[in-house]
Each structure stands twice: as structure tokens, then as C-alpha cells.
Design a protein that fits this description.
GO terms for molecular function: methionyl-tRNA formyltransferase activity. One of its GO terms (cellular component) is cytosol. Keywords: Protein biosynthesis, Transferase. Belongs to the Fmt family. The protein is of the alpha+beta class. The chain folds into 2 domains: about 190 residues, 3-Layer(aba) Sandwich (Rossmann fold); about 90 residues, Roll (Methionyl-tRNA Fmet Formyltransferase, Chain A, domain 2). It is about 25% helix and about 25% strand. Strands 9, 10, 11, 12, 13 and 14 form a 6-stranded antiparallel β-sheet that branches. It has a 4-stranded mixed β-sheet with strand order 5-6-7-8. The protein has a two-stranded parallel sheet with strand order 1-4. α1 runs parallel beside α6 and α5 packs antiparallel against α7. The chain is elongated, with a radius of gyration of 22 Å. The termini are far apart.
């Protein structure tokens, strides 16, 4: 059960290792592209169709018709990777239960955006967790965890791309362990839990009054999506890649400086955010020097 690119390696590794995947549950097709006229299939669906795996795309997971169709697949284990919350009737259906792959070292970063928040908070390490699904989201007993570093300049997108491969390996390890019965469950310590709530446009505005390192972490933690932003001449300006310089700053936080040729800097109390890639509202993503070819401060 999954939808985005993040879930594809986990499905692929099970297929490649000879496991009988009797079905895939994924999101319904949606219109997108230019003018929203193109019907788009999820990455998981595309791979499943290529492999001849039956695909279920329910609008409502509580639908009796969907649940009957799912039960008819006779799966003895369900694997969830980047999918929506399941009703108990679904996750409790198979003989061996349902486990989820989560993009953090639970109980840290329970919620919808664990990768983003780990980078925003400047963590040097994150990882993946597999756990059996229970009633409360991301609280089930842990099967396995694997750690991975976060580089000091790494974006959430880069962490995501590495994590989905580590996640796939962990999914395979988990399936093998459940198959053999060779695993020990570990309860999560709720006292150590932190949250990773969903990100919205209004919460992605950059606060340049924060220390420069926090500003930098905020930018890379939201790159490439949903993207940290500020305003320039009344328009939204997304900052997609940047680095920072510690310095004594003689400007109000949020002030732009540029040589109008190759660099753009934005002031924070204790340094400058040096913009490398950006996207002005209504324009495409571009490097700072390319942006300055048609814009002057």
C-alpha cells in the first residue's frame, strides 16, 4: 500500500526477491500537468502495472466493496509505505498483520513530514522504522530501525532519495523476519515522542530574524518541496538552495544585497543567507546568476 516515488523501491525489492505480491493499493488517478488535462497515475501503480500486479484504487478505504475486494486477494501480510491512514478493518485483516515503513527513528517525528522536520531542526542523523500498525498513528510496536546521517548542507529532497533505498532494504529485512518468526518487538517510549506535522504554505515563510544557521536549515528542510519562501517586490520568492556566511551584519533581517551579476544575499542577525537557486512567482526555477540576468536590486 503506497503511492509516491518513495514507495516504489520497497515494492520493487519484494518483487525482485521472489515474494508473491498479490495486489497493490494506491491512490486514485488524478488530473494534472498543463491545464490539469492529463490523467496521472501514481508511481506505485505504474510499476505494479508493468509487473502485472493487480491494482486497487479505492476512494474510500472504509467502503465494504473495497474491503471485500482486498480480502479476496488473500494476502497474509500487508506492507504500507507512504500511504494514508488505514481503518482497523483493513490493517487487522491479514494473518500476520500490517506493518508500516516510517521515515524517522520513532518515536521521534511522528506525523506526515518526518524528513522535512529532521532537516529543519538541524539533526545530524535520522533513519527509518518499521512497526506494526495500531490505532494511534505511528505508535505501534517497532520491528526494525536503521540509521543514516544527514549532511550539514543536505536538503530534504536529497535525504528522501537516500532514505527510500534504505527503507526498501529495511522492508525486505522486515518481511523476511516476519516470514521466519525471527524478530522481537519493542514498544515505543511515548515520553520521547516528537511531532512532524504536515507543512502548509503559510508555515513555510522564512523568518530572517532567526539565527542564520536556523534560517539555512529551514530552507534546506523545505527543499525542493514545499519550498521555503519570502517576498520580493510583492511577489513570492521560493529559495530552493542556499548556503550561509557567519558575519557581523549591518542590515535589517530580510534585507537583500546583490552585486547584480552573480550573487544574492539576504540578511539575518548573525550572517547572510547566500542564495544559490530560487524561483520567482510565475517563473521557473533558476540559479541566482541566471535570475540576475533579468532582475536588478
Amino acid at each position: 500500500m503506497g503511492t509516491p516515488d518513495f514507495a516504489v523501491p520497497s515494492l520493487r525489492i519484494l518483487v525482485q526477491n521472489g515474494y508473491k505480491v498479490v495486489g497493490v493499493v494506491t491512490a486514485t488517478d488524478k488530473y494534472g500537468g498543463r491545464g490539469k488535462k492529463q490523467l496521472l497515475e501514481s508511481p506505485v501503480k505504474k510499476y505494479a502495472v508493468e509487473q502485472g500486479i493487480p491494482v486497487l484504487q479505492p476512494k474510500n478505504l472504509k467502503s465494504p466493496e473495497f474491503q471485500e475486494e482486498l480480502r479476496g486477494l488473500n494476502a497474509n501480510l500487508q506492507v504500507v509505505v507512504a500511504f494514508r491512514m488505514l481503518p482497523e478493518a483493513v490493517w487487522d485483516m491479514p494473518e500476520y498483520g500490517t506493518f508500516n515503513l516510517h521515515g524517522s527513528l520513532l518515536p521521534r517525528y511522528r506525523g506526515a513530514a518526518p524528513i522535512n522536520w529532521a532537516v529543519i531542526n538541524g539533526d545530524a542523523e535520522t533513519g527509518v522504522t518499521t512497526f506494526f500498525i495500531r490505532h494511534q498513528i505511528d505508535t505501534g510496536d517497532v520491528l526494525f530501525q536503521e540509521k543514516m546521517p544527514i549532511g550539514p548542507n543536505e536538503t530534504a529532497g536529497a535525504v528522501h532519495d537516500r532514505m527510500m533505498l534504505l527503507g526498501a532494504e529495511t522492508v525486505l529485512k522486515t518481511v523476511k523476519a516476519i516470514e521466519s518468526g525471527d524478530y522481537q518487538l519493542q514498544k515505543q517510549d511515548d515520553a520521547l515522542a516528537t511531532k512532524a506535522p504536515k507543512l502548509f504554505r503559510e508555515t513555510c515563510e522564512i523568518d530572517f530574524a532567526q539565527p542564520i544557521e536556523k534560517v539555512h536549515n529551514f530552507v534546506r528542510g523545505l527543499s525542493p518541496y514545499p519550498a521555503a519562501w519570502t517576498t520580493l517586490e510583492g511577489k513570492q520568492l521560493k529559495i530552493l538552495r542556499a548556503h550561509y556566511e557567519k558575519a557581523d551584519v549591518d542590515a535589517t533581517p530580510g534585507t537583500f544585497r546583490s552585486d547584480n551579476k552573480s550573487w544574492i544575499k539576504i540578511a539575518a542577525p548573525d550572517g547572510w543567507l547566500v542564495v544559490e537557486e530560487l524561483q520567482m512567482q510565475g517563473r521557473k526555477r533558476m540559479k541566482a546568476n541566471d535570475f540576475l540576468n533579468g532582475f536588478s536590486f
